[in-house]
Amino acid sequence: MSATMFGKIPEGASPQPEQFKVQFDEEKLNNLKQLIRLSPVAKDCYENQNRDQGFGVTRQWMLDTKEYWEKQFDWRQVEENINSTPQFMQRINDDGYEFKIHFCGLFSNRADAVPIMLLHGWPGSFLEFLHILDLLKKRYTPDDLPYHIICPSLPGYALSTQPPLDRNWGIADTARIMHKLMLSLGFQSYMVQGGDIGSYVSRSIAATYSECKAMHLNFCMMPKPEDVPDTDLEPVERDAIERSKFFVETATAYGRMHAQRPATIGHMLSSSPLALLAWIGEKFLEWTDQDLPLDMVLADITLYWLCESFPTSIYTYREDFDVPPRKGFYHSQEGLYVDKPIGYSYFPYELIAIPKAWAATTGNLVWFKRHDKGGHFAALERPQELLQDIEDFVKVAWK
Questions:
Q1: Could you provide one GO biological process annotation from this protein's UniProt record (predicted)?
Q2: In the predicted model, is pLDDT for residue 206 greater than 80?
């Protein structure tokens, strides 16, 4: 199917976004392969032999994945898949600083199509949503697609411009740019959907801008509200809370590093593709309830490397770990209550699987679905379920 089929921008976009193809120079790909080949893997030690100990990725996984990445992984095939969906670059002016924001998506010819922005997190990217976009392309034509689907790369990620060098940048800043993106495409009302950091950006948009009419989340990290008793929780939710406590106690050091020493970790993971592989690969291995295809994992890590994204993608962590005083994690912070329709998809193996009763304290929760499978990367792990949830929520929330 030609990418141009769903690539007609609605009237009213200003400026008109540029359509393009994602294609990296052959020299850059060859350099990456050479760096993979020359990068050593750590020697055998007790900690890297036994994954069950929870010490991180094993040496054997690194050796096997290094060989596959160098000799078999086909980035050009990834590009072909990316380019089967319309790709755009939009110019956004923000107080004299011009961003070029990359996004992909599907545009409908219907006058009543609902604009929906899908927002990724870390260590994800717009690649997370390609499966959902493929499902929509198979189900609809441009003439009957009920939605406009926009999947941006957040500032500092992939092909989008990074935040300015001369000032701090936060979630509210990214939310402002994403809001401006939707207005620039001619939309005077729209919905947002997000997981991980994308859920933070979604909440900031929904709480701040009147043009955003509804919000759907599959991640809602927050502490226990004082006025919600444990008796309001389902057994599966209580089990998930215990797993979440274990994650917070044993597996959040990476986030503190992102927040407290971003420059240092940025240098480290920009110096070797194998360092980046270990750091991000660990998350795809541990944050899901099923094994993701290795090509899927390597596509994301390769995109980070080719776009030099890592050091400019971790700025949001300061608002979770290193900005005192704060009242809880992002979704329960003051000023972010959302009085518009909220939908929440609960995946039981999410890192921090927040109960329905807790999420309901953060806004006008009008739609909820509890799944029995799925982890942190819902769009990758359970694309059909997440898409169905979004479609069901639209029916309730979009009036």
A1: epoxide metabolic process
A2: yes
**Model pTM score:** 0.96
Write down how long the chain is.
399
Which of 102, 120, 148, 376 is labelled catalytic?
376
Catalytic residue among 317, 330, 344, 349: 317
Active site residue 330: no
304 is known as an active-site residue: no
SS (H, E, C) 322-359: CCCCCCCCHHHCCCCCEEEEEEEEECCECCCCCCHHHH
> Cα–Cα distances in Å, from 307 out to 28, 29, 296, 380?
10, 12, 17, 21
* pLDDT at site 334: 83
Instruction: Pick the catalytic residue from 102, 179, 196, 320.
Output: 196
At the topology level, CATH places domain 3-397 in Rossmann fold (3.40.50)
Domains in the chain: boundaries: 3-397
Contact partners, residue 245, CB within 8 Å, separation at least 6: none
Question: 134 catalytic, yes or no?
Answer: no
**70 within 8 A of 37, measured Cβ to Cβ:** yes
Number of C-beta neighbours around residue 369 at 10 A: 17
Residue written as token pair 């979440």: 244
Smallest Cα–Cα separation from 152: which of 211, 218, 98, 197? 197
Q: Which residues contact 110 (CB under 8 A, 6 or more apart)?
A: 143, 144, 145, 146
Residue 164 clears pLDDT 70, i.e. is over it: yes
DSSP, residue by residue, 62-116: HHHHHHHHHHT--HHHHHHHHHTS-EEEEEEEETTEEEEEEEEEE--S-TTPEEE
Rounded to whole angstroms, how far apart are CA atoms 221 and 262?
A: 22
Instruction: Give the pLDDT confidence score for residue 1 in this predicted structure.
Output: 53
In this structure, are residues 390 and 193 in contact, taking their beta carbons and an 8 Å threshold?
Answer: yes
Structural element, H or E, at residue 19: strand 18-19
Asked whether 169 and 90 are in contact (CB, 8 A), the reply is no
* Res. 77 pLDDT band, cuts 50 70 90: very high
322 pLDDT tier (thresholds 50, 70, 90): low
